[in-house]
Amino acid sequence: MGKIVLVGNPNCGKTSVFNLLTGLKSKVSNLSGTTVEVNKGNLEVNNQQFEIVDLPGTYSIYPNSNEEEESINFLLEHKDDIDLLVYVADANQLFRNFLFLGQLLSLKMPTAIIANMWDKVNKKEATRDLDKIQEELGIPILPFSARSNRELPILRKFIVEKSSLKPKTDYFMTKDLPAMEDLIEHTSDTNQVDRSNHTLFIYKCLSKLFDKNSVPVDSDRTYKWDKVLLHPIWGFVIFGIVMFLMFQILFPLAEFPMQAIDSLFQRLADFVGGQLPADSMVTSLIVKGIIPGIAGVVIFTPQIALLFLFLGILEDTGYVSRISFLMDSTLRKVGLNGKSVIPMVGGFACSIPAIMSARTIGNKKERLITMLITPLMACSARLSVYTVLISLLFVKEDNSILSQRGLVFFAMYMFGIVVALIASWLLSKRMKNTNSDFMVIEMPRYRLPIWRNVRSQAWQKTYQFIKGAGMVIFVVSIVLWFLASFGPKSKMEAVSAKYSAKPQTEQNIRLQNAEKLENSFAGHIGKVIEPAIEPLGYDWKIGIALITSFAAREVFVGTLSTIYAIEGEGNERIVSRLRKAKRQDGKPVYTLGTIISLLLFYSLALQCMSTLAVMKKETGTWKWPLLQFLYMGALAYILALIAYQTIV
Amino acid sequence: MELVKASHLKLGETATIELIEPNENMGKLFELGFIKGVSIKKAHISFDGLNICFAINNTMFAVRNKDSQYIMVTRETE
């Protein structure tokens, strides 16, 4: 099988080319450093098999961050078994993009060039440049636009036909400087002078191939937009409005599909309940265990999909880099870096890829702090917890222009950001800075979002959410159903005997169910942990949900749905059930104090095993995930305690 | 022509890079295309002046003011 490797500068469209060739759907966006790990896929053309490798973008052979280092190491390790190096370059920036090409040619690998984003260049001038480059370097070049898949057959043909061609490699060589291949093999030991001299020499060679470089004129569309979006005052105002509107729109837009899903699951439960024997264990397991548990998670799919869609649009337009620029000064004061915005914004969707995206931050201290605080961003898993808890805060229908629920939602997201900044400041005071704080952010050109990318990313992430959470909640629902339906024989029989002589009224049935639940195995487990959580305003049922949601936060709602379904009758919505929930003394469980306490707990606690696993992978030690788990857990417990004790 | 620091350019002003003063990040600036003879435009500035966006080679890069102190230029639009 042939090995074809895609390389190039950040944000030149390598992953778009990779997706086209392999049919895979790796993440692409209008943002430098979107690809932070090596992607691999397969291509078959005319019965020939190829492995396609997509490397994270890098400006040169001297890496400035972890993901760039990964690219360079891959090239050095595999240089002898690469059948074709496909150098993807932004056709609008060939002069700068070709520095890395000039360095790589010394590795003497068969090379072909894709001049991507060809649809955005001045064809007349650019074609002249390409002809000159092909002639001088002896490397085939394909003008291409990865925005559309119409040119895919040409791309496939180009890659297969050119895979055996070796380029002329003497164009960027000089006897006056140390051999480039020696420098590449020892990049970490190369001194500044050799490195700089080589860079300048390659640029000198390139200047013979290209007409003089240019700067944007005032009429340039990106330049004009940036005058507003990067404005020292208006830039922040617009950023605030964008974020505010995003959370304001989320609720009303998701309301209708959420109601439809809810009603679908209620009908499903009624249908299944009607088809199966009323008193059978299987009916109880399905109708009171599995269906409410899964419904408790799936119902939030519209909100999560919309959130991913909004974040995808922000990334694909090129706006996220602007947020990095706006925020760098502020973030630097608390020990972060403008590039920390990318993991932080990504953290609104999911901490796992967000933590990985911190690889683009070159400074080790800033990268580590970014990874430690990213899980404080309100991720999509928290969305379901927040939705239920915030709905409990508002009894009346919300018809105002500014959605009250949207405002509380926005406040919760802001709370996560503020705590993250404070935590970052405190961490930065305790950690030493060991390397340079040089930072550069490339501002991509604005573009209309590529709907295909945005939709595909939103769908993939939503599907992963449903699949991941669905599997967990499926297992948890079965286990919970068992624990909540059975208990020590003597105690369960005593409850049955107590109510057997009483008339079978609706109230007596409800009381019997409640007493059985309390005496079940789940009830016993909940009672054991109750003393620890009682000061936070939680009863033992919430305690069970806290335990099950340790693996993943979203399981909280599914757990409560199952517990209350077993206790109650009919197929009420979870919010209605929680509103009616009472403590033993007859007082409601979900008071303002308990709701605020739960909101704070879930906004701060690190209840996500996958986040801990990815932190271990990224830092190479259990020290940092453990610290992260402990500091977030302690913070969650203390603030939830203070909130409940103050409000009550 | 007078040599000035790129950070001292007026907003929207265009200049030509003459040299990069030796510093620990000189190589990185070269690799991004900040080299002698290249046109550079001070395009945007952050609210506290600590970050600057420079347009060069049809690209826009945001760098910190302290790193841009080493980019010496001569004004084109004088």
What does this entry look like structurally?
The complex is a heterodimer of chains A (648) and B (78). By secondary structure, chain A is an alpha/beta fold. Among the domains of chain A are: 2-207, Rossmann fold (3-Layer(aba) Sandwich), CATH 3.40.50.300; 475-647, no CATH class. Chain A is built from 27 helices and seven strands. Chain A has helices at 14-22, 66-78, 94-104, 123-137, 152-162, 180-185, 192-207, 221-229, 234-275, 281-298, 301-317, 319-333, 341-347, 351-357, 364-373, 380-393, 404-430, 451-485, 489-500, 506-519, 521-533, 540-548, 555-567, 574-580, 592-604, 609-619, 623-647; strands spanning 2-8, 39-45, 48-54, 84-90, 111-116, 141-143, 440-443. Chain A has a six-stranded mixed beta sheet, with helices on both faces. The longest helix of chain A is centred in the middle third of the chain and has 42 residues, at 234-275. Chain A is elongated and about 100 Å long. The mean pLDDT of chain A is 85. Chain B is mainly β. Chain B has one domain (4-75): SH3 type barrels (Roll), CATH 2.30.30. Chain B has helices at residues 26-31, 65-68; strands at residues 4-5, 14-20, 39-45, 51-56, 59-64, 71-75. In chain B, strand 4 (51-56) and strand 5 form a beta hairpin. The longest helix of chain B has 6 residues, at 26-31. Chain B starts with a strand and ends with a strand. Strand 7 of chain A pairs antiparallel with strand 5 of chain B, so a sheet runs across the interface.
